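Here is an idea for our session: we take a single protein and study its fold together. Once you have written the record down, we can walk along the chain together.
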Amino acid sequence: MLRSAQMLIAQGLIYHFFGPEWSLNKSLQDEQSLHLYKNIISLFNDRSSLKCPFGLHTLLELADKADSRIGNNKSNSRVGTWFGPTSVCTLMKESLNESVNIKLLDNIKIYVAQDCTIFKPDLLNMCTRDGSFVPCIVLIPARLGGNSVNEIYIDTLKMHLEMKNCLGIIGGKPKHSLYFFGYQADKILFLDPHLCQPSVNIYSSEDDDSKNFDNKSYHCSNAGYISFNKLDPSIAIGFYFKNRDELNEFCEFMKKNSQSEYFHSIFGVSEESFEKLQLNYEMFSLDERSYEENSLKSPVRRKKSKEKKGYFDKMLNNNNLNKAKVSTSARSGSSKTNGKKISDSDDFVLV
């Protein structure tokens, strides 16, 4: 999954610096564009260096440090273990946040959605600097079923892949991640990064401006395809927003579509911050507990409890989301569906 996530982030950087109409041949004709292209690739170099924040070694070291901070005794087993979409998206965000000395990444952010929801105030707060909007890559981990993708979400996936802001989808088949960038009929198109190739010594312009490297292994001319029904249900969708207008347009589009009974949302957009929503939820939970303990609740408190419950029902209905979530045991990896273990335990299930 790390390699597939690298492809998604690389596509986001291409959108950021060159725009969606970029092509490899055009970038190599201009010396300035070639210089920028070279520096972008150097960010993914497979070596342990602060200059390569999205390189495999750097990402694994960051994951190992994160495990050590939370007291995970199995932190040394990270190499060779499976990373789910949520874990990978979080790693990419943390790696960018650590890259404070890389000028190339000064003007871009990565936002990871929580609980299949984009909290718009939180995103704007993160992406606002001196009153201006900082371009942002938005990553949305989601789970679209138990052991396979629920067919009701296939049309929604197609719609997202058609959007101009979409960077693609990372997911794949069980234990085999892929990067998806488009579709044709009922087939979804992918690139597979898991092909053994000779290592490439990449040097950024900060190391040696005159050094060249072979970039053939970073591009391919052939794509594969599989049926939507064969997708692993655990995925992450990426979007890129260059300015506030693009973000607002996207949010309005999602809100308009979510009101249709034929549209099945994969994620929602909240106008409230995560902190405020969490606070309202805690108050709602306390009121419910109090209600169980005291059946003679006053009319005033009963009215407040009803208003808070209505707040959550309204948010879920506006985003056309079902209220069902994975149980605590499922999130810990112990839940089974039809005798099979859920592959990515830290995602919510949309049913």
